[in-house]
Amino acid sequence: DADVTQTPRNRITKTGKRIMLECSQTKGHDRMYWYRQDPGLGLRLIYYSFDVKDINKGEISDGYSVSRQAQAKFSLSLESAIPNQTALYFCATSDRNSNTEAFFGQGTRLTVV
Amino acid sequence: KQEVTQIPAALSVPEGENLVLNCSFTDSAIYNLQWFRQDPGKGLTSLLLIQSSQREQTSGRLNASLDKSSGRSTLYIAASQPGDSATYLCAVRVFSGTYKYIFGTGTRLKVLA
Q1: Which of A14, A61, B6, B76 is most buried, with most CB under 10 Å away?
Q2: What residues of B are in contact with residue A45 (Cβ under 8 Å)?
Q3: Which of A5, A101, A108, A110 to mutate: most B Cβ within 10 Å?
Q4: Cβ-defined contact of A42 to B105 (cutoff 8 Å)
Q5: Chain A contact for B4, CB < 8 A?
Q6: How far is the C-alpha of B47 from the C-alpha of A7, rounded, in Å?
Q7: What are the b/e assignments for A62-84, b being 16+ CB within 10 Å?
C-alpha cells in the first residue's frame, strides 16, 4: 500500500460544482500539504497543515478550502470549480524535523469543463 | 523570494550516455534539497535528499551534488537507460514563516533506445 493515498485519481467536473479531493497517509507524519501542478509552472502550494488544529494558506489558496479530519487525513475542496482549476493535484507529507524528506501521493488529475 | 530554476526544460539523449541535470536556487538559506522523479500520470518519487550541510548524495547510478554558496545542485545519471525517461524535479526546503518546499519546473528527460 502507498504511504500517501489520494482519491480520486482522475475526476472530470462541471464549472460551479463543489468537489473534494481526499488524502490519507500511513507515515505518521504531522505535516500535510496540498500542491497543484500546471505545465511550465511547477508545483505550487495551496494549503498546508502542521497538525489537526493548524491550517495555513499557501501561495495560491483562493478558491480552495481544506479540512484536516485527523492526523492521517487532509482533504482539499473546490467550493465552486472553475476551468482554470484544471490541474494535477498532489498531497504530500513530512514530519516536523526540518531535515527530513517529503513523500507524495500519486496525484489527482482534475478537469473542470 | 526563493526561486528554483531547472535547465534544460527538456533533454533527449541516446541510451548509455552520462548526463547532468541542473537545478539553481536564488537564496542559499535552505535546509535541504530533494530530487524527485515524476512519471506520466504518477506521483513524485523521491530520489535523493541532500541536507544543507552535505555536498553530495549517491544512490545507485544517481549522484546529486549541492553547492549552497552558488545556489546550485546537479543530478548526475550514469549510463542512462530508457527506463530513466521521466520528468525530474528538484525542490528546496526553506523557512518562510514556516517550513516550505519550493519546486523547480522540472527537466523532461527522454532516453532513446
Answers
A1: B6
A2: 100-101
A3: A101
A4: yes
A5: yes
A6: 24
A7: eebbbebeebbebbbebeebeee
Per-residue pLDDT, A95: 84
Neighbours of B108 (CB within 10 A): 17
Q: DSSP E strands: which ranges in chain A?
A: 4-7, 10-13, 19-25, 31-38, 42-51, 54-57, 64-70, 73-78, 87-94, 103-104, 108-112
B108 contacts chain A (CB < 8 A): no
Which residue type is seen at A5? Answer: T
Interface size between A and B, measured as CB pairs under 8 A? 61
Residue A39's Cβ-side half-sphere holds a number of Cα atoms within 13 Å equal to 5
pLDDT one-digit tens code per residue, A70-93: 999 999 999 999 999 999 999 999
Helix (H, G, I), strand (E, B) or coil at B34: strand
Find the largest Cα–Cα distance for chain A.
41
Hey, what's the cell of A87?
A: 490541474
The residue written with cell numbers 492526523 in the block is A71
pLDDT digit string (tens) for A11-61?
999 999 999 999 999 999 999 999 999 987 889 999 999 888 899 999 899
